[in-house]
Amino acid sequence: MDSFLTFINNYKIIDAWIVLTGLFGVYLMYDRYKALFVEYAMPAEPFLKQVMTLIEQDKIEEAITFCSANEKKPLAYVTKRILEKSDRDDQAVETAHDIAASEMAPKLMRRLGHLAMLSNVVTLIGLLGTVAGLITAFRAVSYADPAQKQTLLAEGISIAMTATMLGLMFAIPIMMVYSFLHAKQGQLFSEIDQVSQKVIEALKGRIYMPYKGLTAYPSNLNTDGMKKSGTPPSPKAS
Q1: How far apart are CA 106 and CA 50, in angstroms?
Q2: 3 state SS of 11
Q3: What's the pLDDT tens digit per position in 171-227?
Q4: Distance (Å) of CA 86 to CA 44, 51, 81
Q5: What confidence tens digit (pLDDT) does each residue in 189-202 have?
Q6: Which residue, 43, 101, 156, 190, is most buried by CB atoms nearer than 10 A?
Q7: Cβ-based neighbours of 93, under 8 Å, separated by 6 or more
Q8: Max alpha carbon distance in the chain (Å)?
Q9: Angle at 187 between CA 185 and CA 188, to 5 degrees
Q10: Which of 128, 130, 159, 156 is nearest to 143 (CA)?
Q11: Among residues 44, 73, 76, 28, which one has the least CA distance to residue 181?
């Protein structure tokens, strides 16, 4: 045990472990920020307004083309898949929405949970370094030469405090950034759900027009011709 503690203390194994884990967390923070705030984000209100305008004008193909231009965005991708089934029944439209949303969910959720894990892990590694430093300090008090006790005690406490500081330096920013990224992820899911439901309702309203009796049975059928002739048309001879 003494040799193991001496080895990890002399070569700063725990400190290096903390730094490597923390740097991996920094990389994940950058990767998820770029994905959620740059690659996958788009203004939902202007997008919905443009799509609804095209649907109202019965320009479904143009709406699909508009979505295809932004297909890397989850919101545009899901909307495009819905519009592609606009000539089918309600069940096909709903199924297209569910499938498209399930395809986009893994991209939005990818590696985000690892940030919370890394924040906890780097804290625990720092705690391990703290314990290792305290063990070194206590062993110095118990067994070391009286002339070296103070030096070894200070060295052990320094190891413990350094590990604690390094762990918290990485854990706190990672946890804070994770909270912001998680909130952005929830916002994107909410926008996809709201926009897709409005598009589906617009398609249903476009397909099922209300029944109008005057249009089906016009009241002025052949009245012009009857007024000109003055007599009702005679039945055809059989």
Answers
A1: 27
A2: coil
A3: 999 999 999 999 999 999 999 999 999 999 998 886 544 444 444 444 454 545 444
A4: 21, 13, 9
A5: 999 999 999 999 99
A6: 156
A7: 82, 85, 86, 200, 203, 204
A8: 135
A9: 65
A10: 156
A11: 28
Whether the Cβ atoms of residue 25 and residue 118 lie closer than 8 Å to each other: yes
Query: Using an 8 Å Cβ cutoff, are 194 and 78 in contact?
Result: no
Among left, alpha and beta (phi > 0; psi -120 to 50; other), residue 164 is alpha
Q: What is the three-class DSSP state of 191?
A: helix
Rounded to two decimals, the pTM is 0.77
CA–CA separation, 33 and 5 (whole Å): 39
Residue 104 falls inside a structural domain: yes
**The total number of structural domains that make up the chain:** 1
Q: Which value, to the nearest 10 degrees, does the dihedral of the CA atoms of residues 80, 83, 88, 94 take?
A: 70
Question: Residue 220: its pLDDT value, please?
Answer: 52
Q: What is the Cβ-side half-sphere exposure of residue 54, based on CA atoms within 13 angstroms?
A: 19
Domain-located, residue 19: yes
Nearest alpha-carbon partner for 54 in 18, 86, 93, 8: 86
CA–CA separation, 48 and 149 (whole Å): 72
Taking the C-alpha atoms of residue 136 and residue 87, their distance in angstroms, rounded to an integer, is 74
Return all residues near 9 (Cβ < 8 A) that are at least 6 apart: 132, 133, 136, 159
Of the candidates 144, 152, 118, 120, the one whose C-alpha atom is nearest the C-alpha of residue 23 is 118
**Domain range holding 33?**
2-206
CA atoms within 13 A on the CB side of 4: 4
Closest residue by Cα to residue 32 from 116, 89, 97: 116
Q: Tell me if 214 is assigned to some domain.
A: no
